[in-house]
Design a protein that fits this description.
2 domains, elongated, Transcription Regulator spoIIAA, homodimer, mainly alpha, 8 strands
Chain lengths: ~625, ~625
């Protein structure tokens, strides 16, 4: 792509412009620039520049604790909005917290703790004003699945609790250190398609697990994959309790109908949830961290995986709201806030498991947003509401049947299976659809980790394939212009007799140097065959449009050198058009520029074709210098 | 990069050309095309097209056995050249084979077998006419290092032999199946820089191992890393035999001086090598394959790693000679040939270890080339010469002192440390230099595998970083033209008032979508700050040059959608210039094209700027349609 020409049709004089070799930069300077772009792309310190020290301190405080930024201008009107929003999300968070605790095989009361301290931490440190912090089903499932392989929650509940607790601690530490080390971009490697497939798969698995509650089964498999669950369910058909199933499905139907009719209004889950809830707040518990060898690695692994997923989803949700309200979310800062949140709840509360380190899912934040929240104070209100519940209202939650709990979970999970998004992926990008389906199938038929690893691996493979097998096109002239474009995209474009114009569409790296050498040779072969059959002018020039070649390494330089030699042997002239700054720098340093000849490197394809045509028709040795001098005088 | 314009200065009428949406292609067709480009980039079946079946059979035979291609036209003159070349390389191969066998802790005679059958197989199946097949030091070292961790060659020589033998078999099977499955591109991921660093590191390690022979030590470490070897050497200074060291260094000096003076002539290693050589050929030995569990995985791992390195080096060497003589090397075909060679020698000879599956190193092939070889018959001559040696001359090699053997190895290894190439890497591409040094340090301070893994990981990281942190530039107008280029490369270019032109230099994928969103926002912020300070025209248009954006995925589409919304909110107009076929297809399928507006997508940056300028100065709502109609009439 990216080439055209500049002609004065009246005089028909081609003017050629020199391709500039970028001014040399000291190594240290360019290294510093590259490091900055890699780790500080958002330039977080920009506001600190040219400021006195005291001002810097205030700005730094505001940077880590955005509450100082908005608190001074907080008004009573804001408080009214935030109060209503906070109470609303609390009414969602309480039943959700308890349900999701069941998912992670943890005592239900722990679900409530999760909605108490973390929102307070986030209110002070987070940069999103709309994110409602709380528990999330997928994280609960991850806990159950990953820790459940090591320890049986029913047989050894205390160890299981401590492990979950340790995993939360490591997730928090991992998140905070990613943020501090400016490695937030690791989260970017979980693509949108991966998250859609992963969430849908996790939701499917959670729904399958609820068959236990719906069918009133006593025994159930600890595996989460479809095959094991189905085998477990259908091996004990005689145990199914039909009255339980009927109640469960009726309630689920009721939930779905209610939701359908209130689709654009906040959803109030005014239901009670079963559980052995202990009243009151718990003492600190750093001593409960399990730091002994046999389980430590499991806890760390669980912590890291859930930490990354939590971040990916939390940041994505926060960002979509930030876009609506036009403010900025700093990914690395968010990580520090999430991480502190998780470490903190370890300190203050007994067991605050992975599921509670999760930032609020989209639905809860959407409610918060719709309920008119102005600032993160809504999170503080929610925390207070939860605290009141913890202190005084827990007995109320004692009498909910398990089947209702299962129905609530299924109802919530069905919303996570975003089949419309999957259809959209299929329409727009087949490869993303494959990634999404792999994540789904991996989670449903294998495990949560398998799904995640497969999806990330396929996504990375795509990036590597893009570089390993770059597109190469033939460019043709768009009629009545001097613009040259891909002949497949612009079907009305015409090739130039005697000249083959190829565009290379990726950086030339070791991974594609061999491929490009062979592909260029094949293009030339095919073009010569075609010309032989049709009896047209024989091929004399091969123009490589380097406009899209962003970088080149030493393997790429060797490749170009070989191509140049092969062209020389075949008596073809190699011409380069529009090489970028990096490419020119390296052509120059490797002296390849002298072998190709600076006079055979043009600023645009149009100029290159102009020069070739001129030579084809006049057969002068090197008219360009004269042309360019003539132009300079004009 | 990649944009310019087309103006008639006389009339000053901008003409705009529509950006084409590529014609829709059926999914199956485009999938087929992509698979072909990935696995059959060299179109190996092209010559089979439109041929009768009998002809296809002949071509197929020639494809797998190139000997049928050149044998019919073989002349006596060729034989004369090949005979001399064959004898010359045999005189190199015999001492090298024996020396390298010592490196791999194997009986020296096995080194000779390696130079017997493999050249015969390669002569029939290989596509390079100059490659001299034989043993290579690095592979010997790999064997010693990887198998030596499992089995002590001195304590259990039989098991060690069998393991080495099994590893060779797997290396062969792996190579052949890579070739058959068209996965040859995996070898491309070992970049030039990696191989330079790896070879130099391996040579250093081999030289360190020779300290045992030079200093006449009895006991020596089995580890290969620098620290262990140095500790082993300096812990037994009282055991050093000074007479041995003096003899060794003198001989090494003699070798190096001889080589210096005969630098551009074939090197004849007319020296004898120690060993307990058994006369005669050995019976088949498939039953010696070790297929039992504790060692099988080691053998397979060793086989695969050495197999890949052997291929990478062999193909690189073969290709550089092919370039000189202008013929084509087919990577995948070479793999099948190398693989068969290794499987075959397992069948025909007792133990032909990894070191013998290696194709000849550069030096031996260079000798072959200089000695005037015409075809692979030189390999056959060499094989015969080696056979004669095996049958009749082995007793002669009995009386060489070990110290001389060590000197020969050191002399050969010094040639593999290509410090000039490393300096070249530093000059041309700092990142490649880092890759090279990591490979070197990994091999010298860790192990052969560590060096390899580190270098490949860093190389891949570079590819991922290219995509994760793409370059974005501001484009400026090159004076007196309508061409727009990177302002940093073209220091004389000028920015356009009221218009910010950004070029994105990589595909927009999940891995960089967040980065690009933030980076674009930052460019706009910085530009607005600059304009505010200088009091120029405020910013009104942001043009994204998509010329170098080869592809976009759904995360990228969402990113563009967000950028569009943010621009709308900031009252800036988003304009796209020169999107490629893939990008246009996906913009169209995702309906984003309607949100941006087809009238805001231009073929070149020049046209986009023209339209913006026109609007800036006349403030008409949408003049382009009229313009373009006007132009169509002209």
């Amino acid at each position: 792509m990216g080439s055209a020409d500049y002609v004065y049709p009246a005089t028909n004089v081609e003017c050629s412009h020199r391709v500039a070799i970028p001014p040399p930069q000291p190594f240290v300077k360019s290294l510093k620039y590259n490091l900055k772009e890699t780790f500080f792309p958002d330039d977080p310190l920009r506001q600190f520049k040219n400021q006195p020290t005291s001002r810097r301190f205030v700005l730094g405080l505001k940077y880590f604790f955005p509450i100082f930024d908005w608190a001074p201008s907080y008004t009573f009107d804001f408080l009214k909005s935030d109060f209503i929003a906070g109470i609303t999300i609390a009414s969602l968070a309480i039943p959700q917290g308890i349900s999701y605790a069941k998912l992670a095989n943890l005592p239900p009361i722990l679900g409530l703790y999760s909605s108490f301290i973390p929102p307070l931490v986030y209110a002070m440190m987070g940069s999103s004003r709309d994110l409602a912090v709380g528990t999330v089903a997928v994280a609960s499932l991850l806990t159950a699945s990953m820790l459940g392989n090591e320890v049986n929650a029913n047989e050894n509940p205390k160890l299981y609790l401590h492990l979950a607790f340790t995993a939360t601690f490591f997730a928090g530490a991992f998140q905070a250190s990613l943020g501090l080390l400016r490695l937030g971009f690791i989260v970017d490697f979980l693509s949108h398609a991966t998250i859609i497939g992963f969430m849908a798969g996790a939701a499917t698995v959670v729904i399958l697990q609820q068959l236990k509650g719906i069918l009133g089964l006593e025994h159930f498999t600890h595996s989460t994959d479809l095959v094991s669950v189905m085998r477990s369910v259908f091996s004990q058909t005689h145990q199914w309790r039909w009255e339980s199933a009927a109640l469960g499905f009726s309630f689920l139907f009721f939930l779905l109908v209610t939701r359908y009719f209130s689709k654009r209004k906040p959803k109030f889950f005014l239901v009670q949830v079963i559980g052995y809830l202990k009243k009151g707040l718990n003492p600190p518990s750093f001593e409960d961290l399990v730091l002994v060898s046999p389980y430590l690695s499991t806890a760390i692994k669980t912590g890291i995986i859930t930490g990354v997923i939590a971040l990916a989803e939390g940041i994505a949700v926060g960002r979509s709201f930030a876009m609506f309200k036009n403010y900025h979310i700093d990914g690395n800062k968010e990580m520090i806030a999430f991480g502190t949140m998780n470490i903190f709840q370890v300190r203050k509360l007994r067991v605050l498991v992975i599921q509670w380190k999760f930032p609020g899912p989209f639905s809860r934040s959407a409610v918060n947003f719709n309920a008119g929240c102005k600032t993160a104070v809504s999170n503080i209100v929610m925390a207070l509401a939860v605290m009141v519940t913890l202190l005084f209202l827990t007995p109320l939650f004692h009498y909910t049947p398990l089947v209702v709990l299962s129905s609530i979970i299924i109802g919530a999970m069905l919303g996570l299976i975003d089949y419309e998004a999957a259809i959209h992926l299929w329409t727009v990008d087949k490869f993303d659809f494959i990634v999404c389906m792999s994540a789904y199938a991996g989670v449903v038929f294998g495990s949560v980790e398998i799904g995640l690893v497969v999806a990330v691996a396929i996504s990375l493979l795509r990036v590597l394939l893009f570089v390993a097998r770059p597109k190469t096109f033939i460019l043709g002239n768009i009629p009545d212009t001097m613009i040259y474009r891909n002949v497949e995209q612009y079907t009305n474009s015409n090739t130039v007799p005697g000249v083959l114009i190829l565009e290379i569409d990726a950086p030339i790296y070791f991974a594609n140097a061999s491929y490009l050498r062979e592909r260029i040779a094949r293009w030339v072969d095919e073009e010569e065959d075609r010309l032989k059959t049709s009896g047209e002018t024989s091929l004399q020039y091969v123009i490589l449009d380097m406009g899209a070649v962003g970088n080149i390494d030493t393997s790429g330089i060797s490749m170009l050198e070989e191509v140049k030699k092969v062209m020389d042997r075949r008596e073809l002239k190699l011409v380069l058009a529009n090489p970028g700054a990096e490419v020119m720098k390296k052509l120059n340093k490797s002296k390849l520029i002298d072998k190709i000849g600076l006079e055979w490197i043009y600023l645009t394809v149009g100029e290159a074709v102009g020069a070739c045509n001129f030579l084809l028709h006049t057969c002068k040795p090197d008219p360009l210098k004269e042309e360019s001098e003539a132009h300079n005088k004009v």
